[in-house]
Write a structure and sequence with these properties.
Elements (H helix, E strand, L loop, with lengths): L2 H26 L1 E3 L6 E3 L22 H29 L1
Antiparallel strand pairs: 1-2
Bound molecules: zinc ion (ZN).
The site of zinc ion has 8 residues, from loops.
Length: 93
């Protein structure tokens, strides 16, 4: 066997590995529909085959405590922004 063949085989093997990796990545994003058993992407909220409602992976209703905190932070930032604009308006006048 020549060296060339080995390199070629190595390339083929790498290509195969890449394909397998990609397949594994896609598999990671697949879930089985509880309604019809079809393999569907995990971010879908509705099964494309049977139309059944799906819960997307990683979807968790927000903790009400956290939600309130985020709202408070949003408010504070908003108020600070308004104050900054008012102060700027006064300073620039
Ligand atoms: Zn389905």
């Amino acid at each position: 066997m020549s060296k060339k063949t080995t390199v070629y085989e190595d390339e083929e093997r790498k290509k195969e590995e890449r394909i397998q990796k990609r397949k594994a990545q896609i598999e990671k994003h697949l879930v089985t529909c509880p309604h019809c058993g079809e393999r569907v992407l995990d971010h879908l909220t509705k099964c494309p085959k049977c139309g059944g409602v799906l819960t997307p992976r990683g979807y968790t209703p927000m903790d009400p405590k956290k939600e309130r905190l985020f709202k408070t932070i949003g408010w504070v930032i908003g108020i600070l922004g308004v104050i900054a604009v008012i102060v700027l308006a006064i300073v620039l006048n």
